[in-house]
Amino acid sequence: MTASLGDRRRERIDALAARAGALPEGDGGVSLVKSAFRRLRRNPVFLIGAVIVVVFLLVALFAPWLAPRDPYAQSLLSEVRQGSIPGSREGYPLGVDQLGRDLFSRLIYGSRQSLLIGVVSTVLGAVAGMMLGVLAGAFGGLVDTLVMRFVDIILSVPGLLMAISISVLLGQNQVSLMIAIAVTQIPLFARLLRGSMLVQRDRDYAVAAQALGVRRRNVVLGHVLPNSLSPVIVQATLSLATAIIEAAALSFLGLGDPDISRPEWGAMLASAQSVLSVRAELAIYPALCIIVVALGFTLVGESLREALDPKFRR
Amino acid sequence: MTSAMTSAMAGAVPVLEVEELAVTFTRRGEASTRAVDGVSFAVAPGETIGLVGESGCGKSVTSLAVMGLLPRRGVEVSGSVRLDGEELLGASDRTLRKLRGADMAMVFQDPLSSLNPTVTIGTQVTEVLYEHRHMAKKDAVAEATDLLDRVGIPDPARRLGEYPHQLSGGMRQRALIAMALACSPRLLIADEPTTALDVTIQAQILELLRELVLGSGTALVMITHDLGVVAGLCDRVHVMYAGKIIETADRHDLFARPRQPYTGGLLASVPRLDAGRGTPLTPIRGSARDAIPWAEGCAFAPRCDNAEDDCLTEVSGSTVPLEYDGPGRELRCRHPLQYPPAAAGATASGVPR
Question: Could you tell me if A108 and A176 lie in one domain?
Answer without folding.
Answer: yes
